[in-house]
Amino acid sequence: DFEQCDPRKCTGKKLSRFGYVKELRVHQRFAGVVLSPVGQKCISQEDAALVEERGLAVIDCSWAKLEAVPFGHLRSGSARLLPWLVAANPTNYGRPCKLSCVEALTAALVICGKEELGTELLSKFKWGHGFLSLNSKLLKQYAKCKNSGEVVAVQNSWLSSSEKSEQDQEQSSDNDDELPPLHRNMNRVDSDEEPDTENETRDDE
C-alpha cells in the first residue's frame, strides 16, 4: 500500500480490515502472483496452482500516480497483468482497466477458477455486484483460457468486435433521419448495453 488513495474509498484497506488481505513491506519478498501494470504476461488458469499455493497480491496505488511507484523494488518473480475489463467502482465507473484493488483481485480469482471467493470479496462493497454484471461474459471467456496467450486472444477478439459494433451503430445513427417516426423504442435497452453513467473526474484508485 503506497497510501496514494483516499483511505475512505480504498478497497484494499477495507479488505485488510476484514482480514482478507495483509499488508506487505515494499522490499518484502512475495512468492505468489502479484497483479502489476509492469507484468509481462496476463493472468490465466496457468497461474491457478501458484495462487492456490502461494497466494495473490495487488499493488495498492493511484492510477494517476503510477510514475511515483517504485515497481523495481517490489520483489516478486510472478508479476501478472489483468486483461481488458471495465471498472464498476464509483471513482472510475465505466472506465476500462481502471480497476480498484477488490475488482483486480476478484477478476484474477475468477480467471483462476475461484469465483466464489471473488464474489465474497465483492460482497463487502455495495456496488460490488456491478463489477461481475459489467464483465460477466468476458470473465467467463477468460476463465476458460488455459494460458496467457489464449487470454490475450480473447481480449483482442472482444475489442475488435466491440469496435465493429460501435462503427455499425454510428452508421445506423447517421441514417436516423430516414427512419419513420417511432421506428426505435427509446425506452428499450438491450441486455448487452450498459446504462449511460457520468464518470467521476478523480483517479483515486
Automatic annotation (TrEMBL):
Region (Disordered) location: 159-205
GO terms under biological process: maturation of SSU-rRNA
Keywords: Cytoplasm, Ribosome biogenesis, rRNA processing, S-adenosyl-L-methionine, Transferase
GO molecular function: rRNA small subunit aminocarboxypropyltransferase activity
Biased composition range(s): Acidic residues: 168-179, 191-205
All residue ranges annotated as the RNase L inhibitor RLI-like possible metal-binding domain in the record: 1-28
Domain 16S/18S rRNA aminocarboxypropyltransferase Tsr3 C-terminal: 33-159
Any Pfam family: Ribo_biogen_C
PANTHER family tied to this protein: 18S RRNA AMINOCARBOXYPROPYLTRANSFERASE, RIBOSOME BIOGENESIS PROTEIN TSR3 HOMOLOG
Name used for this protein in its record: 16S/18S rRNA aminocarboxypropyltransferase Tsr3 C-terminal domain-containing protein
Organism: Selaginella moellendorffii (Spikemoss)
